[in-house]
Amino acid sequence: MQTGRRKGAAPASSKKPGMRSIDDEIREKYLERAIRELNQMSREVQECRHCPRGKLMPVLGSGHPQADVFMLKHAPMASEIEEGVAFYGRSGNALMKSFKRLGIDPLVVYGTLCVKCPIPEPDLAAGECVARLVEELAIVQPKIVVVMGEPALRVLNGLSVPLSRPIEGREGEIQAFTPTIDALYVPDIDESLDEEGAKQRFWRAFKQLGDWYDDLPPY
Prior knowledge:
This protein is an alpha/beta fold. It has a single domain, classed as Uracil-DNA Glycosylase, subunit E. The protein has 8 helices and 6 strands; from the N terminus they run αββααβααβαββαα. It has helices at residues 22-47, 78-83, 90-102, 127-130, 132-140, 150-158, 196-206, 208-214; strands spanning 62-63, 69-73, 109-113, 144-148, 174-176, 182-186.
């Protein structure tokens, strides 16, 4: 799988070993802060008791704390609940293959869920819990949100994300979400893995992410 520096990051410094540029130090500070804030949010989610999840633990987001690409699903599947990690299992494996085909470094990706608590009826999740997605977006500060499926689209459009505009349910079209964040709406990946036509529909929409990624400036 393709690896390498994150798009948008500066090229490696030509200075002598042991010397770092001011830009490098600033980026490290921002990264350290993002890690701290995500860890704090994870602790708060784990301690939250708004949703009736019993003894099951919430399913947390994972990936680069300052990712360019923010993957968003509505609710967890059984494998994600078992591991406590979003996009663990079939959906994650399918996405990794898609990233490889599109030439997207998986190290620039962060994935999470609208409903992090494993409850029987995700639509009944507490509003306070779902609203944490706004905080998660503010911490990661991605360049694009890939919204998977109508339920996730409905949740995201219903949140008070600063300076945001509604995302239309037009599959495979890059849209402006905020002045600094684009959006791409695609079918729900969990519903697209068992039937060939559904797989093709997902891929037709998702592959637009590759063109978007190629157009990112390398700085």
